[in-house]
Specification:
The protein has about 210 residues and is of the alpha/beta class. Helices cover about 50% and strands about 15% of the residues. Strands 5-4-1-6-7 form a five-stranded parallel beta sheet. A two-stranded antiparallel sheet has the order 2-3. Helix 7 links the parallel strand 4 and strand 5.
Length: about 210
């Protein structure tokens, strides 16, 4: 029987519209993809999530490197809340699970300002029993240390916990440490899994590699 629900944030509790965010600012689709790639593919992004460098420092570095895109970078880094695509059905299901007696934890790679600007949109923080966010502990999924911090900080029995994440490497790391985990590939499949948890306290096959299981 599962008692602890452990959730990633991005592409689990919410989706992202970063490309549209850049296009709303006035970039073409091609330029939006290019500028987004400059952000996400740079090693500085992981260092930001690790809490080793602040968002504003990364923004200034990117503006200095790519002056022609400076205003787009400033828009992106200062308006992270505009990237969120809400998943209200998922949020309602999480609240229902909490009301049914499940403990709810967050385990996610995030920098500090992006985390607070985006997680507030969900309205879930009052339902969260604890969180381990990468910038706080200076390590990232799928590094095993971040999972161990979660287990130790909240005294979680990994056999009573189930983890939802959108990246296979993060799911594999959790499973290697003894926590059942589900790879989330779409919102509908996630809702099906959460519904099974709510109804029976377990998922029929948490080792499926896609969330659209039968």
């Amino acid at each position: 029987m599962k008692k602890n629900l452990v959730l990633d944030i991005g592409n689990v509790l919410m989706s992202y519209r970063w490309k549209d965010m850049f296009m709303d600012f006035g970039l073409s689709e091609e330029d939006a993809l290019r500028v987004g790639g400059l952000c996400f593919d740079d090693p500085l992004w992981n260092e930001m999530d690790r809490g080793r460098i602040l968002e504003r420092e990364v923004m200034e570095i990117m503006c200095s490197r790519y002056p022609g895109d400076a205003e787009a970078f400033r828009h992106f880094f200062t308006h992270a809340e505009l990237m969120v695509v809400e998943r209200p059905r998922v949020w309602e299901m999480v609240r229902n699970l909490k009301d049914a007696g499940f403990a709810v934890y967050l385990l996610s790679n995030y920098s500090e300002n992006f985390f607070y600007k985006q997680i507030w949109a969900t309205g879930l923080l009052p339902y969260v029993d604890g969180a381990v966010i990468s910038y706080q502990v200076h390590c990232l999924k799928p590094e095993k240390e971040i999972y161990r911090i979660l287990f130790d900080r909240y005294h979680l029995d990994r056999r009573e916990s189930i983890f939802f994440d959108d990246r296979a490497e993060n799911v594999e790391a959790a499973r290697s440490l003894g926590m059942d985990s589900c790879l989330v590939t779409d919102e509908e499949g996630l809702l099906q899994w959460l519904s099974e948890l709510l109804d029976a306290g377990e998922i029929r096959n948490p080792y499926d590699w896609t969330s659209g299981h039968n």
